[in-house]
Write a structure and sequence with these properties.
The chain is mainly α. It has three helices and no strands. The two termini are 15 Å apart.
Length: 64
């Protein structure tokens, strides 16, 4: 299993924060509940360093 680099983890954190900021600016009661999954999964990947999407992409396309 691969671990995400520091740069990738920083990217995940910023992506989650940006999406959550957009949800907040739109209104927490106005967006669908499914939109909250993006910050949850990206912050999980930033905290733990394991990204299921990255692992799947490496299995499909090989390591770069």
């Amino acid at each position: 299993m691969t671990k995400a680099s520091r740069a990738m983890r920083f990217f995940f954190f910023n992506t989650g924060a940006t999406v959550l900021l957009g949800i907040g600016l739109t209104g927490f009661d106005q967006v669908h509940w499914f939109l909250y999954t993006v910050p949850v999964f990206t912050w999980f990947a930033a905290a733990v360093g394991i990204c299921p999407g990255l692992i799947l992409a490496q299995k499909l396309f090989g390591k770069a």
